Amino acid sequence: MIRKIIKIDESKCNGCGACAEACHEGAIAMVDGVARLTREDYCDGLGDCLPACPTGAITFEEREAPAYDREAVMAHKAVSKKGLKNWPVQIKLAPVKSDCFDGADLLIAADCTAYAFADLNKQFAEGRTVLIGCPKLDGWDYSEKLTQIIASNDIKSVTVVRMEVPCCGGMEMAARNAVKNSGKFIPWQVVTISTDGRII
What we know:
Blueprint: E1 2-8, H1 18-22, E2 28-31, E3 34-37, E4 58-64, H2 70-80, E5 104-110, H3 113-116, H4 120-125, E6 129-133, H5 135-138, H6 143-152, E7 155-163, H7 169-181, E8 188-193
Parallel strand pairs: 5-6, 5-7, 7-8
Antiparallel strand pairs: 1-4, 2-3
Helix pairs in contact: 6-7
């Protein structure tokens, strides 16, 4: 059928993820650091994502597209409520200001922790807004971005989950600096996971 649907100009996308956050239907996802319309049948054509885009990469077009599938969207939302509260979760891709951070208990986790500690989601991620990264692989100091997120939003608490290996010290230090540099007094804790999957 011919209908109104969004169009994303990937050459204008800066990878901020604001459109994916604004899309209540889950039609947009960040793929390799770029916003993409991954589910045309989830796009209702109302354009909640348009004002969220800081670069003007999103417009409307009329073209052949699958019909909007409200039932599939509702089923997707029901499943999503049991999983992550926010997307994207990579620190480098996460927006600085977002509703998902308002009143949030923030979990900052090293990438490896989810694989080393099987109950990470149940014990730490459930009910929290999640940010993940690896300071060694990214080669990037997260301090400034995390400071901006904490300073710009009403964060209630910060939990850092890291591995016992030395490279994860960068994640803990970035979170520590961010809380300090934000100028806010926020309760925070560090949980360390051993390489054999225990909390130590």
